[in-house]
């Protein structure tokens, strides 16, 4: 068995550690080292861990610089063959690690993998952040098997397979440690949201695969760091989506896709405005201003990535398919439209 480290990034999440860490220990201690990386929490997370779980390794980051930097700093201090990036608000199940490690061991081209992620609040349904594996459409809109926008499918065993996907969820992502460090880990500038999609896309640009395995299941609350409806979340999602597109799109698609996204984002901002979502409207505007300011840095990052066409991209507009054509489930999408 290779050396595996489960690393939980915590920020003011004592309530989640109290609830979910016992299960992680019970179902992981015999196959993995368990580590909590604390992002300078202001609650008593650290004292709680030191008193209640002295055998759990604790890494303390000096300040909260977000999901990406928090993990990058912590993982520099962890020696393992595989890292499991695990949200603090996830409930794991028996034998949740071995099926994914076995899958990754079977193919050295697999850079990252995720299990089936279901909702803890609605256990029969998939959860928003990852569900049955992540995909992206040709305009950069992410979606999942089992989750198209806010529509969550019931788990009826339709995604119990192993499948190559486009991205693996950062809520529970298995990743090869050597590749993580060789390729710069998560992008620090993302802070939070879509950093795992950017990482997986960079891995695909290097010829690696991203996988999903339905042989393991975890349950996720979601919204533990930011509420599901948050202008801060809107800002980060729009900002980071533009950044990952600019960094990773093939040259022939770059200008066309970015131009169309500027138009589509403008439409989205007007929709926010008409629905009295003033904070979300300004969040989209701020996201675009940030993108323009950061273009020099993004060009430099792009030059180091060498983007080229990759597979598992949905060649239609998922927004149109879902909201206009009323396609609610992943199975209603034509498999021939994924290249």
Description:
The protein is an alpha/beta fold. It has two domains: 4-220, Alpha-Beta Complex (Spore Coat Polysaccharide Biosynthesis Protein SpsA, Chain A), CATH 3.90.550; 226-308, no CATH class. It has eleven helices and 14 strands. The protein has helices at 14-28, 45-52, 66-75, 98-105, 177-182, 195-205, 231-248, 251-274, 278-293, 295-305, 318-323; strands at residues 4-10, 33-39, 57-61, 82-87, 90-91, 110-119, 134-137, 142-144, 147-148, 151-152, 162-165, 172-176, 209-220, 313-314. The longest helix is centred in the C-terminal third of the chain and has 24 residues, at 251-274. It starts with a strand and ends in a 16-residue tail after the last helix. 46% of the residues are buried.
Q: What is the fourth-level CATH superfamily of the largest domain?
A: Spore Coat Polysaccharide Biosynthesis Protein SpsA, Chain A
**Uncertain residue ranges:** none
Strand content: 15-25%
Overall body shape: globular
The number of domains is: 2
User: In percent, how helical is the residue content?
Assistant: 25-40%
CATH hierarchy class name of the largest domain: Alpha Beta
Specify the number of helices.
11
Name the CATH architecture of the largest domain: Alpha-Beta Complex
Ends apart, CA distance between termini: 35 Å
Q: What is the count of β-strands?
A: 14
């Amino acid at each position: 068995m290779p050396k595996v480290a489960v690393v939980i990034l915590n920020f003011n999440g004592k309530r989640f550690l109290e609830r979910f860490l016992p299960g992680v220990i019970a179902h992981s201690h015999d196959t993995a080292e368990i580590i909590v990386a604390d992002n300078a929490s202001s609650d008593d997370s650290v004292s709680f861990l030191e008193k209640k779980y002295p055998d759990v390794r604790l890494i303390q980051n000096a300040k909260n610089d977000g999901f990406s930097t928090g993990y990058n700093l912590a993982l520099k201090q962890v020696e393992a063959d595989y890292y499991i990036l695990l949200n603090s608000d996830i409930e794991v199940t028996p034998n949740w690690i071995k099926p994914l490690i076995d899958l990754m061991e079977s193919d050295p081209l697999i850079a990252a993998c995720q299990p089936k992620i279901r909702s803890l609040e609605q256990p029969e349904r998939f959860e928003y952040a990852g569900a049955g594996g992540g995909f992206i459409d040709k305009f950069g809109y992410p979606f999942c098997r089992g989750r198209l926008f806010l529509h969550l499918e019931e788990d009826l065993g339709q995604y119990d397979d192993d499948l190559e996907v486009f991205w693996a969820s950062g809520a529970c992502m298995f990743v090869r440690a050597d590749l993580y460090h060789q390729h710069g880990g998560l992008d620090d500038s993302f802070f939070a949201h879509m950093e795992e999609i950017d990482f997986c896309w960079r891995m695909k640009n290097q010829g690696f695969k991203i996988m999903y395995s339905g042989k393991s299941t975890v349950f996720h609350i979601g919204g533990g760091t930011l509420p599901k409806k948050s202008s801060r979340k809107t800002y980060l999602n729009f900002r980071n989506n533009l950044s990952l597109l600019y960094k990773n799109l093939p040259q022939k698609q770059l200008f066309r896709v970015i131009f169309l996204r500027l138009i589509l984002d403008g439409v989205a901002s007007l929709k926010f405005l008409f629905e009295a979502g003033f904070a979300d409207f300004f969040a989209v505007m701020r996201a675009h201003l940030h993108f323009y300011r950061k273009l020099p840095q993004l060009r430099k990052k792009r030059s180091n990535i060498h983007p080229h066409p990759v597979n598992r991209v949905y060649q239609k507009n998922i927004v149109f398919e879902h909201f206009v054509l009323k396609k609610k489930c992943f199975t209603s999408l034509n498999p021939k439209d994924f290249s």
